[in-house]
Amino acid sequence: MTQQKCTFVAVLVCSCLVAGAAIASSEILSELVGTWNYSSLTAIKNGKPFGTAHFQPGQWTLKLNADGTYLMKGPMKASSSDSSGASGKYEVRKHDLNMRPDNGGHGLKYEFKLKQDGKVLVLTSKDDGSIISANRE
Predict the structure, then answer these.
(1) Residues 82, 42 share a domain
(2) pLDDT tens-digit profile of 57-111?
(3) What is the DSSP letter of 80?
(4) In whole angstroms, what is the distance from residue 135 CA to residue 6 CA?
(5) Count H helices, E strands: the chain?
(6) Are residues 43 and 76 in the same domain?
(7) Which residues contact 133 (CB under 8 A, 6 or more apart)?
(8) Which of the four pLDDT bands, split at 50, 70 and 90, describes residue 13?
(9) Are residues 87 and 121 in the same domain?
(10) Contacts of 125 (CB under 8 A, 6+ apart)
(11) Which residue in 40, 86, 97, 122 has its CB near the most CB atoms, within 10 A?
(12) Which domain holds residue 127?
């Protein structure tokens, strides 16, 4: 391959990588950004609903920021601190929401759906199938 062809291929590859990064970073949907109040959590056992916990507004919230960061405040305190919150980064790929906590703990992977004209967020865990329903604050 000539040097000119090598340079062309290198520029093409770099352009594709930059375009791919731009696409990935722009996949944060404005419809997801904001604060969500969890209203219920349904546990799944053997593929069937096993039990549902209901939450009061503000008891368990998830704030998804436009910069790809999140803050979750829950009803239980973290075992390693006095805080009941967790923060980290998230990314969206089609209908997948992947959350990585800042503390290096277990990441959370969900399939999400927006319902009722974007007022309800439904998260289905890819780990155990549990279903979280949350209302826009």
Answers:
(1) yes
(2) 999 999 999 999 999 998 765 555 555 679 999 999 999 999 999 988 889 999 9
(3) T
(4) 53
(5) 1, 9
(6) yes
(7) 38, 39, 40, 41, 42, 120, 121, 122, 123
(8) very low
(9) yes
(10) 108, 109, 110, 131, 132
(11) 97
(12) 31-136
Same domain, 16 and 40: no
57 with 19, same domain: the answer is no
Would you say residue 23 has pLDDT above 50?
no
Residue 95 and residue 111 in contact, taking contact as beta carbons nearer than 8 Å: yes
Q: C-alpha angle 108/110/115, rounded to 5°?
A: 140
Compute the radius of gyration of the chain from its Cα atoms: 19
Q: Are residues 18 and 36 in the same domain?
A: no
What's the CATH number where 60 sits?
Answer: 2.40.128.270
Q: What is the pLDDT of residue 79?
A: 53
Both 1 and 15 in a single domain? yes
Mean pLDDT of the chain: 81
Tell me the percentage of the chain whose pLDDT exceeds 70.
74
18 and 41 together in one domain: no
